[in-house]
Design a protein that fits this description.
Layout: H1 20-40, H2 47-50, E1 52-59, H3 65-71, E2 80-85, E3 90-95, H4 103-117, E4 122-130, H5 132-160, H6 163-187, H7 193-223, H8 229-239, H9 241-261, H10 263-286
Antiparallel strand pairs: 1-3, 1-4, 2-3
Amino acid sequence: MRFPIRFLEKPPRINFIGNRWYGFTFTIIGMIVTAVSLMTQGLNFGIDFTGGVVMEIRTEQVADVSKLRQILNVPELGGAMIQSVGEGRDVMIRLAPQEGLQQSAIADKVRALVTEGYGSAVEFTRVDYVGPQVGKELITGSLVAVGLALVMMLLYLWFRFEWQYGAGGILALIHDAIMMVGFFSVTQIEFNLTSVAAILTVIGYSINDSVVIYDRVRENLRKYKTMPLDTLLNQTINETLSRTILTGGTVFLALIGLVTLGGEVLFGFSAAMMFGVVVGTYSSIYVSATILIYLSLRREEPAKEASA
């Protein structure tokens, strides 16, 4: 099927493979920055991982979330995460544990502040206490989820292509996951279950981009049996570049809308996804594709002429 509109009329001739050392340098710098940031300041874990208090309230009219944030912006609570749910009358309040305060005392403080400061009838419909043990279990579960995703994608690439493609793809995904963790560490955006969802989404996006390139690599290996591998990879990346830019660009535009209009609740996820789209696109070119040069990719021999 041919599309009537093309982003690039003809494939460009960008020397991606020849400039691969610039890409490798960027990767090394990114890994070093991630490691230093994790060792010095770590991740800003949210309540999902650290434990804390989760409360839900219901108001008579649509809740004024901004007013609630002002009411609960007191040092004793350390900053409350407030999210409107449902039709707007229900509000979820999350509070991290505070040193020297029991969780029940935190909940009582919130009740007193909201009842006194909101100015209309407020019903407290739910109060849950998330212990640190639950947070540890969620961390373990998140690591298992990411690990299983990587293993299943490795097996998929291995069976669909060859082991070299699987190795290149899994290296790119590990690269993306580490870079995403580094993004959360450097920016100190709250790391919670939504952040894990962002990492898994970027992994899925990245492997999709890599598979498109791998399909064209396999096709060109059959078509150009004597072409040097670096030249063939360069041609393949340039041939798929239009699709890569269009896919990444449309996703990026949608994420810009989420970052600017999605509010505080969606900001962390959206910002991480924007970074992830850039990193995933980069890794599909400079990691998963480029690494094939060093993995002894098997090529079919040119067909011999039949003997008379």
